[in-house]
Amino acid sequence: MAKHEYAFYPGCSSQKGASASNYLTSVESMCKTLDVKLTEIPDWNCCGASIGYAEAGELPRHVMNARNFALSEKNLPGQEIVATCAACWLGARETRERLTHSDTLMADTREALKEAGLTINEMPNIRHMVEVLIEDLGFDEMKKHVVRPLEGVKIAGYVGCQTNRPFGVDGESFENPQYLDKMVEMVGAESIPEYDMKVTCCGGALAFSEPEKAQAQIKDIVESAYDHGAEMIVTPCPLCQANVEIYQGQINQRYGTKFNIPVMYYSQLMVVAYGGSAKDAALNGQVIKARRLEEIAAKPVKR
Amino acid sequence: MSANTALAEKYRNNFLKEIEEQVEMGDWVKMCMQCGVCSGSCPTNFQSAWEHPPQELFMMIRAGKREEVLTSSSMWNCTSCYNCIVRCPRKLPITHIMHGIAEYAHRLGMAPKMQPTRFFSGLFWKNCTHTGRVNELKLSMGLYFKDGLGAGIKEGMKMKDVAIGLLKAKRLNPFELFGGHKCKDQKGIQAMLKKAYEIERSRKAAKMAG
Ligand code: SF4
Ligand code: SF4
Ligand code: SF4
Ligand code: SF4
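That is the input. Now the predicted structure with iron/sulfur cluster docked in place:
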C-alpha cells in the first residue's frame, strides 16, 4: 500500500491533450517517487470555474462541485480530495464552505443530487497538491529524494492568485507567501524571495476574452522576473502557467519586448531533481522550451 | 411585463434592497465603509478601461443608480484574484458580490451584450455543463466567432501563433471539435442541474413575494 492515498480531481485542463497535460504527466512521476497514490474520482465533472458566473447562479455551481464530492464518497470512501488546479481547488473549497455553513443550501444540494442518483453524507476535505506536499509529506521528505539538484538555476516563484487567496496554504501570508521559494531551494535551485510580482494576478480568464488587459498584467509579471535575473518562472497553477507562458510572443509584438522565459510547474522541477527524464517531467510540453532543464535532465544521476 | 420591469417595479426606489434580496451575497453591500482598499487592490484598476472599482459600485448601489450599475462593464472585468477579499477591513466577500451583480444583470438582460467577458462567461458555463467537462478548443472557437465569421477568422488569426505553440506541445487537441472529453453520466448531470435551477428560481421568487 502506498504511504499516502487520495481521491484525485485532475480538472479539465489536466486531461490528455488539454492545456495542462504536461502538469498531469509530471505530477504522476512525482507521486511515484514520493509513494503518493492518486485515484481519479470516477466520472468527475468540471467545477464550473469562477468564470462561468454569468449563467451559473449559486446552487447549480455548488451542485457541480457536490457531484464530485458524492462520487468521491461513494467510490473512494474516507479519502481526502486532492486537486492540482488552483481554480478547481478553490471552487471545490468554496462549495464545501458554503454548504457547511448553510443548512438550506445543503438540503437544496441534496435534492438536486438525488436526480443524478447521488448523495453526500460527509463533507470531504479538499486539498491542493502543494498542501499535500508541504503538510502531509514535509520539506525534509521531499528533499530526501533529490538526486540531481538543479544547481545554479535561478527561478522566480510565481504564486499567482488562487492558491494564495482567499484560502491560501496554512501559515503563509497573502502578500508574501514563501512556500514556492522553499520548494525551489529544496530542489537545489536558487530562489528569488524578493520577486515583487509573485502574487500579482495574471488576468485569469480575461486572457481569453480581453487579451489586452491581461497581457498588461502578464508583461509586469515576466518583466519583474527578468529584472531579478531569473532564467525561468515556476508556478503551482495551470491557468497561471498557460497565461504567463503562451502569450509572451504577443506581448513582444505589442510592447516591443524580447520575452522568452520558460514557465514551469513545481512538479516538473521536482521530477528532474528526482532523477526523472525529460519525458517523465513532460518538458516536451513547454511552448517555450526549458533548455537548461533539458540539459540537466540528460545528465547522469548522483546516487 | 418583462422580468426587469417587474423587479424594478417591486423594488422601486430601493435598489439596495433589490441587490440584497436578488444578488448572491448582496446583503453584504450595506457593510461597506467606503475605505477604498478594494479599489486600490483591484488589478483591473491598475489598467485603464475599467469603469467602476468595487467601492464605487457599492456607493452607486446605495445611491440607487440602478441603470448605471446593471449596465456597467465593471463587474465583468473582475479576474477573481481575491485581492479585495483578503484585504477588506469589513470582510465583505467582494469577489462574489461582483460576480453576483454580473449574474443578476445578465439574468435581467441588462448586461452589455457584446462585453467579451460576459460572452465568454456564458460560453464557458454552457461548454462545461454540456458534457460535464470543458472542451478547450470549442471554447476558444466560440469566443473568436462571437462577432460573426469574418471577425472570427481575424480574431482566430491573431491567436494563431499561440495555438500552433500549444499544438506542437500537444496541449491543444484538434479532435476535441468532434466530441472530446466528456462525462459518462451526462443525463444525470443535466437532470441535476435542471433541478438546481428550479430550486434556485423558486427561492428567488419567494423572496420577491415576501
Ligand atoms: S478550474 Fe478549469 S480545469 Fe479546473 S475543473 Fe474548473 S474548469 Fe476544469
Ligand atoms: S491564473 Fe491568474 S487569475 Fe488565475 S489564479 Fe493564477 S494568477 Fe490568479
Ligand atoms: S475594502 Fe471593503 S469596506 Fe473598504 S471600500 Fe472596499 S468593500 Fe468597502
Ligand atoms: S477579485 Fe475582482 S474585484 Fe476583487 S480585486 Fe480582484 S478583480 Fe478586483
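Chain A has a mean pLDDT of 91.
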